[in-house]
Amino acid sequence: MSFVGGLDEAAKHDVLTTIVVFGASGDLAKKKTYPALFHLFEQGLLPKRTRIIGYARTQMDRDKFVARVTSFFKVDVESPAVKRFVGICEYVSGQYDAAADFQRLRGEIDTNEQAMGKRGGGEERVHIYYLALPPSVFVSVGEQIRSNVYDGTCTNRVVIEKPFGHDLESSRQLSKDIGALFSEDEIYRIDHYLGKEMVKNLLALRFANVFYEAVWSHNYISNVQLIFKEPFGTEGRGGYFDEFGIIRDVVQNHLLQVLSIVAMNQPKSLGAEDIRDRKTEVLRRILPIQLEDTLLGQYVGTRDGSKPGYKDDDTVPKDSTTATFAQCVLHVDNDRWRGVPWVIKAGKALDEAKMLVRIQFKDMPNPLFPNLPRNELVLQVSPKESVYIKTIVKEPGLSTNLAMSELDLSYKTRYQDIKIPDAYATLILDVLNGDHSNFVRSDELDEAWRIFTPLLHQIEAEQVVPLPYEYGSRGPKGVDEFPSERAGYKLSNKEYHWRPKSSAASTTTTTTTTTTNRNRNCNCSDDAHSNTTYSRSNDNNNDNGGGSESWQSAGPSSPDGLPGGGGGLQRVVVNGGSGAAAADTAAAATNSAAATTTTTTTTVAAAATLAAAAAAAAAAAAAAEYRSEQCECSQCNPNYYIVPIHVLFSSRVEYACRDCKFSTHSCIDVQQHEVARGHRRWYSYPQ
C-alpha cells in the first residue's frame, strides 16, 4: 500500500538533516510529533542522513524516552522499523533558559553531523527546531536557539505550534519578538488543519473544475457553514482550556483558515506566497463579528451522571464563563461574497466527531418543479474524507416524484490502495521541503485576530454567560435554528439520508448494498435499539436538525427484549465459506422482500420469497462458524462495522447499530459485552 500519491521527492535527497524536538517529554510530541516523524521514516520520506534530538526539562534515561515517544505508534514497537527509527533518535535534558544546556545541545548536533559523514565546505545542511511547547516559552527558547545553537552556515527552520497569542495585541508582540530572532522565511507557524487531506484538496476542487468555479459566488450560493464537532470534553486539560475557550482554541485558527481557502480568489500560481496572498486578501475583507450574531454554550454533565460537566473539572474555576461551544456569522465584504453569510459552529462534548464544510446553493426559480429543496455541496474533512453533492433526481420506476440523492466521492472507497497521511506528517514533510504553502504567515495571523479580538474582549468585559448544554447533545438551545434564522439556511422538505459508501459494500456482501434502510448510523440513546421501536435524529445528513427517521419491528418482542422472535442470536460469518455466502444472500433476499411487503398489500410471491429466505438464512446461520472474539466495533476501531445478525425463529435479519455511544466500549470480550450491554451477541468484520 502506498503512503500517498504525488508527494515531493525532495525529502529523499542526501541532505544532512537535524530535527530538534523541544518539549519532547510532552503530550504533543508523544501523540503527534514523533508518530508523524516515524510515518515519514517508515515510508522513506526522511532524508537518508537524519538525526532527531529530543530536548526537554524532564530527566529520562534512554529506555524511558524510547517507551514514551513510541507509545502512540500504531505498529508493534518491537518491529524492525521502530527499532531502526529509535536508532536515529536521541534525548537531551536541559532547561529552556539555560545557555549552558543549549550549548551542550549544539555539541550534540555537531557530534551527530560528524557521525553522519559531514563533508564540510558548501555541503547542504538543514536544522529544524520544532517547538512543541506552550507559547509562554516561545521567546526564551527562541533566544537561546539564536544565541547558542543557530548555525548561519546551514538552513534553519523554526516550527511554532498554536496558540499564536491571546488577542491582536499579544499576537503582534509575539510576532515582533520572534521576528527579531528569525526571518519570516525561517518561521513555520503550524496549523494542523491545513495539513488535512480534504483541506489540501480544496485548491484542486475549486480551481481544477470549471463547473465549481462558475458557481462559486453570491450569484448562486446562499450560505456556507463550517462545522467542527468533538464528542469529548476537556478531560485532563480543563485548566489550560479555560485560558482560551473554544473561539481561540478552534475558531480563530483552524476554521478561519479553512474559510479563507474556500473563499479566496484564484492565486497567480501554486507558489506559497501567491496562495497566502489570496488567503490574506479574503481575511482583510471579513468584517468584525458582532455579539448579537454569536451563540455561546458551556457543557454540563449528563443527567445520569456518567459524563461530567465542564466545571466539574477540579482545574476549572467553579464560576468559569469560558465557552466550550460557539456559533457565529461572518460576512466577507467583497464582490464575490457580498451578501453571503458564513456560519461557523464549533463545540466540545457534542454528539459526534465531525468537521465539514456545507455550501448551500440558492433556490432554483423553476416553474416546472416548484418548492424544490436546495442543492448542497458538502466536503467532509473528518473523520471520513468525502465529497458529495445533494442533487434532485426522479425516483426510479413509473413514479414521477422527485427525490434527493447525491453524487458521492468517499475517499476510502475510491482510493482503497492509498493511505492518507496524518496531517502532522504532511506538514513536517512540507517543512523538510521548505514549502510554506500550508503554514500561517504573520499578516494572515494579524487579520485573524483583528476579526475576533473585539468580540472576545466584549465577551470578557460583559462577562457573557454561555448557555448550558448536556454532554453528548447537539449543543445549547437555539443551535438548530441559528443557521436558518441568521443565515437563511433552508432545511430540505424531502427525506434524505446520506451515509459514506463502504468499500465492503462492493467487495464483500450483498446485504450492505441491498438493505440501505437498515444499515445506517444509529444515533439512539442508551440501549433504545434493543426495544421494538426506536428513532434517531437526522444529524448525519443535515447537521441542522429537521427530519428524523423511526422504524418499528415487524414482529413481537422476544423474551430477552429484542425485536422478532426469541431464541437468541447467531453470527453469520461473511468469510466462512458457502454457508456464510448463503446467509448473506438469504439476508439480502429477506430484506429485499421485507421492503417489498411494506406496501398496503403483501403478495403471495413475496410471502413465499420471505419464508424461503428466512429458512435459508436460519440454516446458513446454524452452519456458520461461531467465534468468541474480542469486540471490533466501530467505537473502538472506525475501520469496522457491524455485520447482519440472524434472529432464530424469526423472519428477519437484525442489525446491531454501528456507532453506539457506550461509555464502556473498550474491546472487552464478547461474553462481557453481551452481559454488560444487553445486546446479545454482535460482531463486526474489517471493511
From TrEMBL:
InterPro entries: G6P_DH (IPR001282), G6P_DH_AS (IPR019796), G6P_DH_C (IPR022675), G6P_DH_NAD-bd (IPR022674), NAD(P)-bd_dom_sf (IPR036291). It is an enzyme of class 1 (oxidoreductase). Its EC number is 1.1.1.49. Residues 507-516 have a biased composition (Low complexity). It comes from the Eukaryota. Residues 20-201 form the Glucose-6-phosphate dehydrogenase NAD-binding domain. It comes from Coemansia javaensis. The keyword NADP applies. Belongs to the glucose-6-phosphate dehydrogenase family. Keywords: Carbohydrate metabolism, Glucose metabolism, NADP, Oxidoreductase. Pathway: Carbohydrate degradation; pentose phosphate pathway; D-ribulose 5-phosphate from D-glucose 6-phosphate (oxidative stage): step 1/3. The keyword Transmembrane helix does not apply. GO terms for biological process: glucose metabolic process; pentose-phosphate shunt, oxidative branch. Residues 203-485 form the Glucose-6-phosphate dehydrogenase C-terminal domain. Residues 517-537 have a biased composition (Polar residues). Pfam families: G6PD_C (PF02781), G6PD_N (PF00479). This is Glucose-6-phosphate 1-dehydrogenase.
